[in-house]
Amino acid sequence: MQTGTTTAPATTPGPSAARRRGPAAAVLIAEARLFLREPGSLFWVFAFPSVLLVILGFVPAFKEAQDDLGGRRVIDLYVPISILLAMITAGVQAMPPVLTAYRERGILRRMSATPVRPSALLAAQILLHGAACLGSALLVTVVGRTAYGVPLPGQPAGYLLALLLSAAAALTLGATICALSRTAKAATAVGSVAYLVMMFTAGVWLPVQAMPDILRRVVEITPFGAASQALEQAASGSWSGWIHLGVLALWTAVTGVAASRMFRWQ
């Protein structure tokens, strides 16, 4: 990976703009190949959320309309929650150990002598894990629709916007963990704690819509509490609340800037 990254810019003729794009493209291609060689990460990000949805569908009560949920079923709420689970897994469990392991093994130090910038490596990881998240979201939606008759999002544009902002928030948060953690063990430890907290705020154990009012208001200022509400509103046919979208955008901006400024090669 390092050889292709360091030689491409020097041997490829062309304008300076093309040479600047060369290292980033080489990093993306190399990281994509490595990413596809990790079936464990692909399973937990891409397949497991759909598997979880299928398992929950075996609970008879989850397929019955609930008055306290506005006539909806619990399984309907778990489609966006399962999608968020994929994003949380990608952002704080799968991505941070990869980059911190690169730092421990000295790969990042050697890359620092090349035209590749930290932002290129972070962007490659974010793009790859983001693509896995979106693929998982599509699979969950298809499984929910075909297996349990979960309605498709009533507001597709709002749903897509909330989906993209949710993925961005998860992955920039993961990039911040990468920047702060000096070792893979530290990244795994921090990611594990963050994973449990985010699963709760996303509603994996108790849907946000079913939480007591005070708890729900607190959870809604977290990225995945806001994401859960935004996705649920768009799924039910309403435009996602601007407050929830704003919370997601703010978390994405803050963690994205923090990651890009604090990331170090060694």
UniProtKB/TrEMBL annotation:
Its main location: membrane. This is Transport permease protein. It is found in: Cell membrane; Membrane. PANTHER family: DOXORUBICIN RESISTANCE ABC TRANSPORTER PERMEASE PROTEIN DRRC-RELATED (PTHR43027), TRANSPORT PERMEASE PROTEIN (PTHR43027:SF2). Residues 40-266 form the ABC transmembrane type-2 domain. The chain crosses the membrane at residues 42-62, 77-99, 120-144, 156-180, 187-208, 242-263. It is a multi-pass membrane protein. Belongs to the ABC-2 integral membrane protein family. Keywords: Antibiotic resistance, Cell membrane, Membrane, Transmembrane, Transmembrane helix, Transport. InterPro entries: ABC-2_transporter, ABC2_TM, ABC2_TM_bact-type, ABC_2_transport. It comes from Streptomyces microflavus (Streptomyces lipmanii). The keyword Transmembrane applies.
